[in-house]
Design goal:
Elements: E1 3-7, E2 10-13, E3 26-31, E4 34-40, E5 43-49, H1 53-65, H2 67-78
Antiparallel strand pairs: 1-2, 2-3, 3-4, 4-5
């Protein structure tokens, strides 16, 4: 489960075993007992558990800001 970014209380990561066939590029984010999944192309919320609307907006902004970094990390991890 490689962590690719920590910002505030949020940790952004991939699961190393993303299934077969692998889903399109995405990132998971957690904070305490909260969890969300975001598609990266285009950035869109895929799912969330226990995040409030304002937290989803905040995390969406973070994913948009770091989209290029997340995509680079995704391809480095899964395409090698």
């Amino acid at each position: 489960m490689p962590t690719i970014l920590k910002e505030g209380s949020y940790r952004f990561f991939f699961y190393s075993d993303e299934g077969d066939p692998r889903e399109p590029p995405h990132v998971h984010v957690t904070s305490s007992e909260k969890l969300a999944k975001f598609w990266l192309q285009p950035v869109a919320l895929a799912s969330s558990k226990r995040l409030r609307a304002y937290e989803i907006r905040r995390v969406t902004q973070l994913v948009e800001r770091h989209q290029a970094r997340f995509l680079e990390a995704w391809h480095a991890h899964f395409d090698s």
